């Protein structure tokens, strides 16, 4: 009789443990593992050149990858914030770089510089990535743009690599 009771308790324990495991696993998968899709634009097309020195060039994105809010305006190369909150922003361009060339990528909100990153190539390379990533608090209807800059002593223009994996701007509300 003691063996029978022990068997019933053991089976009940296994059932409770299995039920808890599946319940916890479903909670993790449904609640914590979901990553919001990022609205994304990129450059695809003919050779795009950044001149050396002088001006910060508004970057010309010409393709949408994903944009549920229709917030990207390819004519003005801007993104209009659909609702107030914290946004994760990632922008990148890949360029044919020579050693010692200086590159910048800048994020503007309503024509005011919010974030920038600079890089100097230490070697000659045909795909040098210049990128920024940040989390920024934006207000509804803020206009977001990306500008690029490069400087080299010879004032030589450099070509941007096209394609979504090389030159893009992505943004998603995270809070």
Structural notes for this entry:
- By secondary structure, this protein is an alpha+beta fold.
- The chain folds into 2 domains: 34 residues; 135 residues, Jelly Rolls (Sandwich).
- Helices cover 18% and strands 46% of the residues.
- The chain is built from 1 helix and 13 strands.
Counting helices, strands and paired strands, the structural category is alpha+beta
Shape: globular
SS field, number of helical segments:
1
The CATH topology label of the largest domain is: Jelly Rolls
Number of strands: 13
Q: Per DSSP, what share of the residues sits in E-state strands of 2 or more residues? A: over 45%
Averaged pLDDT: 80
What summary fits the major beta sheet?
6 strands, antiparallel
Rg, Å, rounded: 25 Å
């Amino acid at each position: 009789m003691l063996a029978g009771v022990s068997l019933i308790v053991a089976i009940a324990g296994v059932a409770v443990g299995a039920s808890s495991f599946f319940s916890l696993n479903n909670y993790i998968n449904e609640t914590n593992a979901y990553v919001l899709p990022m609205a994304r634009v990129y450059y695809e097309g003919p050779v795009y050149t950044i001149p050396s020195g002088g001006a910060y060039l508004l970057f010309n994105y010409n393709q949408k990858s994903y944009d549920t809010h229709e917030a990207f305006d390819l004519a003005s190369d801007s993104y209009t914030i659909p609702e107030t909150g914290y946004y994760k922003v990632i922008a990148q361009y890949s360029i044919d770089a020579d050693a010692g060339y200086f590159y910048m990528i800048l994020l503007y909100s309503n024509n005011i510089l919010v974030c920038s990153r600079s890089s100097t190539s230490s070697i000659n390379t045909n795909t040098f990535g210049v990128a920024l990533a940040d989390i920024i608090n934006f207000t509804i209807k803020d206009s977001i743009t990306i500008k690029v800059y490069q400087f080299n002593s010879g004032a030589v223009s450099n070509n941007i690599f096209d394609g979504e994996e090389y030159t893009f701007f992505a943004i998603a509300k995270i809070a």
